[in-house]
Each structure stands twice: as C-alpha cells, then as structure tokens.
TrEMBL record:
Its EC number is 6.1.1.4. It comes from Ruegeria faecimaris. It is found in: Cytoplasm. This is Leucine--tRNA ligase. It is an enzyme of class 6 (ligase). ATP binds at K619. InterPro entries: aa-tRNA-synth_I_CS (IPR001412), aa-tRNA-synth_Ia (IPR002300), Leu-tRNA-ligase (IPR002302), Leu_tRNA-synth_edit (IPR025709), M/V/L/I-tRNA-synth_anticd-bd (IPR013155), Methionyl/Leucyl_tRNA_Synth (IPR015413), Rossmann-like_a/b/a_fold (IPR014729), tRNAsynth_Ia_anticodon-bd (IPR009080). Belongs to the class-I aminoacyl-tRNA synthetase family. Residues 36-172 form the Methionyl/Leucyl tRNA synthetase domain. Coiled coil: none annotated. Keywords: Aminoacyl-tRNA synthetase, ATP-binding, Cytoplasm, Ligase, Nucleotide-binding, Protein biosynthesis. Residues 421-578, 616-655 form the Aminoacyl-tRNA synthetase class Ia domain.
Amino acid sequence: MSRYSATEIEAKWQEAWDKAGIFTANHKADKPKYYVLEMFPYPSGRIHMGHVRNYTMGDVIARHKLATGHNVLHPMGWDAFGMPAENAAMAIGGHPKDWTYGNIADMRSQMKPLGLSIDWSREFATCDPEYYGQQQALFLDMLQAGLVYRKNAVVNWDPVDMTVLANEQVEGGRGWRSGALVERRELTQWFFKISDYSEELLDALNTLENWPAKVRLMQENWIGKSRGLQFGFERVDSGEPITVYTTRPDTLMGASFVGISPDHPIAKQLEAENPEVAEFVAECRKGGTTEEAIETAEKLGYDTGIKVKHPLDPNWELPVWIANFILMDYGTGAIFACPAHDQRDLDFCRKYGLPVVDTFFALDNDTPVDKTAFVPPKTEKVRWVNHFAGLTDATGDDAINTTVDFAEKAGWGEGVTKYRLRDWGLSRQRYWGCPIPVVHCESCGVVPEKNENLPIRLPDDVTFDKPGNPLDRHPTWRDCACPSCGAPSKRETDTMDTFVDSSWYFARFTAPHAETPTDLAEAEYWMNVDQYIGGIEHAILHLLYSRFFARAMQITGHLPKKAIEPFDALFTQGMVTHEIYQTRDANGRPVYHLPEDVTDGKLADGTEVEIIPSAKMSKSKKNVVDPVSIISAFGADTARWFVLSDSPPERDVEWTASGAEAAFKHLNRVWNLCDKIGAMDPEAKGDGDQDLLREMHKAIHDVTLGVESFGFNAAIAKLYAFTNTLAKSKAGAAAQKQAIKTLAQLMSPMTPHLAEDIWAHQGGEGLIATAAWPVADEAMLVDDTVTLPIQINGKRRAEISVPKDMDKAEVEKIALSTEAVQKALDGAAPKKVIVVPGRIVNVVV
RNA sequence: GCGGGCGUGAUGGAAUGGUAGACAUAUCAGACUUAAAAUCUGAAGGGCGUAUGCCCGUGUGGGUUCGAGUCCCACCGCCCGCACCA
C-alpha cells in the first residue's frame, strides 16, 4: 500500500497544470467568461493564514467555474507602493524598490505551493513603471475631464509619516498606519472630485444585490445624505448674512444662538484682528490628545459680540459664538443652536448661560427641558407650543417638510441636500508612490506632462537618512522643461495615495500589458468582476474609491458602460484566529509564546502558559501559524481543506493544531480508500450499489450547492459524510470506483492535488481540473423508502417507513394505526392529521 | 448617541417553518500491540430509569402556527461599524 505524500504529488500536479497551461485566461473559445478576484496583497514578504483562506476561497470558485465550462480569469498582483518599504529603508537601509521586489519574489514562492489556479502570466506590481505609467495617463485624462483639481485645503497631517491623510484614513484622530495623532495643516493638494458622485454612488448601492447588506449600509452611512434648510441670519452691524444649514428647521423658534466654526471666514477675520480670538481658535485647532478626550471633548465657545436678527422676528437678536464642535467642511460651517432639542447645544447653553426655549413637548408630558434635551424619533407625533407655521400636533418629519415649504414660499430659505462625503485628497509627500505627472512652470502655472513623456519614473538614487520626501530634496529629478513653453520648470514632488493604485487594478488585469490603461475589447469581454473576495476592512475606502474610479474610467473612455459597478458580487471573508499563549516575566509583564512552542498548555521546560481566547493572528501576540511550515508538514491540500472546513467563510475561523491534524488524517483516509478500491477485482460484485450511488448523487447535489453559495464548510461536512459512507460500503467494484472518482471531483476545488492523483490512479481521463463537473441525477436524490416521523401534537412519538410515492391517504392510514397514535387517541377520532409528503406526519388529538 | 449583526452540547458549527445538535474537535470505552503511536470500531445534550421509555432542552418572557432554532413583539447579553455631521 502506498503512502500519501503531499510534497510529492503537489509538486507533480502543479507542474502538470503549468505544462498544460490550463489556468491561462483565454477569451477566444466559445464559452461564457467568469472573472474571480481576491483582493491583491501588500508584499510584506510573508504570506499568512489570512491569505491562504482568502485565496483558497477564490480558488474553489475559480476551479468550480473552470469545471463547469467557463473561461476563467483568476489573476494575482501586488499592491506594492506604500510606507512600509520606506520605513524599512530608513530602519535597515537599502532601497524601497529592492525591498519590495525581494518581498514579492519571496511571497510568490510561498504562494505557488498552494496550487492556486492563477494565471501568473498576468501578474504585475503597482510599482512597475509599466503600471504606474498607465496610472499617470489615467490621471491626466481625469485631469482633462475635470475629475481632478488642486486646492488649498485644511488637511490631516501625519507628523510621523510626514504626509497628509484623507479623512477616511484618519481613525479616532490618528493616522490609520502610523497611529500618530493627526494635526491640521493648510496645504495645496490634489483632489479627486468624488463628492460630485455622492448621489450616484449612493443610489447605485441599490443595484448591488450581491454585496453584503452590511457593506452597502456602511457606504450609505459614509456618504451621509441629509436634507435640510439653508438660510441666512442678517448681521445687525453690517447687514451681511451668515448662512446656516439645519436639518431641524422646525425648531427655529427655539434658537438660542448662532454658532460658527473656528475655521469660518468670520472667525478667521476676527482671528487676524483680535489676539483673544486668535488664542481661542488656536486652542480649538489643537483638539484632544487621546481618543477619550475626543469622545468627551469639552464644548468650548467664544462670544464674538456680533449680533444677528432672527429671520422671523427682526426685533429678536441672537449672539454669534465661535464653537469648537462646529466643522467647517460640513454644511456651511455655521449653525443655529436649539438647546431644547439637541443635547450638544443644551450642554453648551447651560455652560455659557444661554437661554433654553422648548418648541414642542411629548403628547402626554409638558415638562420643560432641564439637563436632558427632548429628542424624540422624527416619526413620533409631538405637540408644538412654539412654531411659526401654525403647527399643533405633528411628527418631526411632517414639521420639517412643512417648515421647508414655508421658508421657500416666504423666500427666506431653501431646502438643500448635503452629503458627508468629501473630495478625496490624493497628494502624499512620500517617495514610494506613483509620481503625480504635472509640472510647475513660473509662467504657465500647473501644466500636465505630455503623454509621450510617461511614465514619469521614480529616481533610483535617493536616500532615506532624513525625514520628509526624498523627491523634494533630490538634486536634479525635479528639474524639467515646461511641457507647454519649454522653460526650465519644477516637477510636482508629491506622489499619489496608494489607494489610487488599487482603485483600478481589477481593470488592468483584463489587459495587463496594454499600451493604454485598458484595452477596451478585453475590458468589454472580461468585466465585470463576477466574484470579488476580500476583507470587511475595505468596506468603505477601497470599495468606494474603486466605484468612483469605474465611473471616472468610463467618462475618460477606459471602461465600458457596463462596468460602472465593477464588482457584481462581493464576499467579505472572516479572519483566521488562534489562541494566545502567555506567561509573565519577573516584572509581571506579559510574554507571548508561539503555538509551536506550547504542548498541552506547557512550554518545553514545563512552565504552564495562560491561554487567552482566540484573536486575529498577529506577530505581536505570537499567535501565528506560518503557512509555509504547515505546507511542509502536511501539504497545501491539508491547509486548504482546514481553512474552509471549520467555520462559515464569512465568519472567523479558529486555527487549531488538532483541527489541522484531523484534516490531514482525513486526506490520508481518502488516499487509503482510493488505494483499497484500486486494488479491488474490477469484476467484483457486492451489495448496496444503488444505495451507494444514491448517496453519491446526494453528495453531488449538496456539495455543488455548497460551493456555489459560499457554503464551503457545509460542502466539506457533506464530503466527510460521503467518505464515511463509501468507506463502509460493501458495493461492487464498479460502483465504488465511480463513487471515489466522483468524490475526487467534488473535492477537487478544495484539495486539487489529491483529487488529481486519485483521478489518475482510477484511470480518469485527462486532468480532473478540466473534467466536467458531475451533475446530480434528480431521480437518485430521493430514497425509494422514506422514514417519516410521526408527531402527536407536534412532538415526535414514532416513525414509519413508507415508499416515497405513497399517497397521503395511505400514509395517514398507516400513521393512525401505529401503536403510539392509537394509545394517544384512546379510541377517539383525531382532530386533525397533517401529512407533508416525504417529510412528516402530525396528528392532533 | 446612531446604525447593523449575533446568542444552539465541553468546543467550532449543521438544520427550504417539518425527527434540533449533521460534520468535525476534545473526551471516554473497545479492537490491534509486549507497550506506545498510528489505524479501526463504538458511546456521548441534560435529568430519571435495568430497560421498552418518559420529562426537559436552541439567551429570557410572550405571541402566530397542526408544528418555531427558524416568523412577530418585548427584554437581557455579546460583537462590529460610524460618530461633536447641525
């Protein structure tokens, strides 16, 4: 009997697939296409179990589609620009380019043994000049189409990475990568006009039926549409209006003061004139220092002394305050405060002794507001005591609509729609990114580079011994001729946010070597991505940017109209977790231990470790298992099988040594089963051929359903069960052989190497990878005889065995004659009998 | 605060409104072995009982239904996302 040697067969079949070129995507044949894509990795240098899970899921889909007669596009690339390469250069010397390409080579060599059905001929890295040159071309087209612009803006400055960050890249006041507290600076930056597409990006979410509802909702909240009233408060001194935006215009009679942002033009003017204001505004800009401080930040205000007139009563004057909680880039940067119905306004007014006026009460309670603002749901009816349009009992929603109509008719305000989504600032003061292809000329201003000069390559001779951008201090790279007038000029030294790189790579995969960003014929054939798979952490940033880029690329003629939503279906997979093993050092500080150093809760020297519940694998907690060592111990098939088997794919899966071993043992069992069946006399007859084949068809049905609906764990459970059935079967050689070949086919998306070897051993034709996927025979899915449970009043009391097509009346008769039913009836007639054919019988007594 | 999701054995988890706990882990017992490992066979939600069996059981409480883990309402707990957004 031969032994299952994963190392041997995996290398053998990977070579065979390569040689046959079966994973090379090809659009010539007359078959439907299928584009499956997993989010491409950052080349950190090591693959981790998360990658294994992500790519295995995509591979299962890709291989299944290949076996069901599709032209499959399943590419792989590298999201290769970004800070870590520069950090490495600063920390250990060397060049970001060498570091990155070295990592790519390492990771590729770790990934290849997984046996993924990837078309490696389409591989690229975003730091390839061939790729980023096309990105520059795309940028220039977008510039011409008015989708990119430059403006002076208050931006988030990361003092550690020494670069600006987009709003989406600031989490809790800290840089998403460095974790440093973000400062606010005013700089001239490049922006993508994503906010022009707010409404469309929001509307189109409804068409993304095969996206998780959670992701759509997160994007909806992020875009943040609101409807409200915009109007002016007239200044008493100058007669100039201060324009405010409010979503609760119905509370205007409860207005207590007008508030403006510290960045509002009026505040800026006062700042210049008045040192006291300057000091206050500076204090506001500093902001909090910790996350808690930001959450519980004290409301700060400064009374400017300016008075404005209430739009409904020229004799009613309100003070104008500068308040630290008002954001300049939302609405108009100015508000009116209604403390009775807004907790934040109430806190502010109580602090500074400003009036609090109730405008409505609950229908059954008219207690004036004291410390808690009265903010009922807008759908709840309330009783108005202070409204200008004569409202009495109405819901908030009705009151808002009535008020907007009233203001529009009276001509002092207009209903407007606002979005929270702001334009995407793409300038980064970094070296290792795609250079922005523009030139600054003293006479011509900002001039786009000529297309024939692309790519604008990054210079290789740079140093990282000083903080800041090496491009900025390079002696010659900046020098160039103005593309317009030819005069000596300076290049832009900012590079693009790396999210730009990942916003169109999926389109580039359709023609990775085209001389233009895309090849429209190829894009027309391969787009859209039929199934996209990645982490939920990209729910907003990457996916929203990509949706914007798909629109921009359509406008600039690089993608067909049908690709406006580039990802037909999205699946967000869970993480791979592991227990954490901890001891403490002499000072009581935690010390973590690698799983491979812990046996039965003890270290090699016998020290007991504390076991902390599973968390995402991370190097700092040392709860990591290296795919490379798993593959060398058990083989890729075992790793692939295990990451899919234990949990539903959208949930986290806990890596356990026992689970991985169990997966390995099971594959051995299947191997031995194949050996055993192979050794049978081909003419041997046995018992229960039909039963085995029936189970085989049920397995085909269930596994296919599982694979097609991301029920990988359920599919694998069915494969376990069918293997157990086959192992115990006494059927004849022909039936067993058919069963093991089918089992191999059903396993082939998950464990492709083992499946291939079994196929060959059992005399299967060609490669199993390209063999037609088995189809279940409907007639074989139902047993001739079915076991029906008999319920009495909904509780199971007995079972009967009847032919599958016996009619209801007959089933009822048999059910009623059972001992349990007779006993329960005790001579009386049943009140009701429900017979669900093939399912159940319920007798009500 | 706003929004969303989830609560099933010791554990991960199965169950188109139709026999709850498939499949797997851990556990226990048996076979093989001088012994162990490996492998194979079997047991196993809780309680009572020698047993045929009976009672209870999917976070808690109600409801709809012949029948609810699944649908509806309320509550409790946990997780995630967003958040001075006017």
